[in-house]
Design a protein that fits this description.
β7 and β8 form a beta hairpin. This protein has about 120 residues and is an all-beta fold. About 30% of the residues are buried. The protein has no helices and ten strands. About 0% of the residues lie in helices and about 45% in strands.
């Protein structure tokens, strides 16, 4: 399986926004439920959001509901996570994967750091 490549992270002040992207070089995930996950320092990786293959259904962790929006462009084989009203507790490495996730698809993730 090909690792998924997340990008778009960075350093932002609290209240700011970032948009993450996820690509799958050489692989199509247009018929798969896709998700975003994150891992903060010293904590286990946790679910953030997922989106069904048809984009007709999304689901969010309570901690990000109303602030984050997951979307996908199947024609571009790309997954997105728009993050608004960021908080310091959103600081983590963000990963994309199928949902349920597959071990071999974990990539390096992208670091999001929110300063207070």
């Amino acid at each position: 399986q090909v690792q998924l490549v997340a990008s778009g992270g960075g350093l932002v002040q609290a209240g700011g926004s970032l948009r993450l992207s996820c690509a799958a070089p050489g692989r199509s995930f247009s018929t798969t439920t896709m998700g975003w996950f994150r891992q903060a320092p010293g904590k286990e990786r946790e679910f953030v959001a997922h989106i069904r293959w048809s984009a007709s259904s999304t689901y969010y962790a309570d901690s990000v509901k109303g602030r984050f929006t997951i979307s996908r462009d199947n024609a571009k084989n790309t997954l997105y996570l728009q993050m608004n009203s960021l908080k310091p507790e959103d600081t983590a490495v963000y990963y994309c994967n199928t949902d349920p996730p597959t071990t071999r698809s974990w990539g390096q993730g992208t670091q999001v750091t929110v300063s207070s």
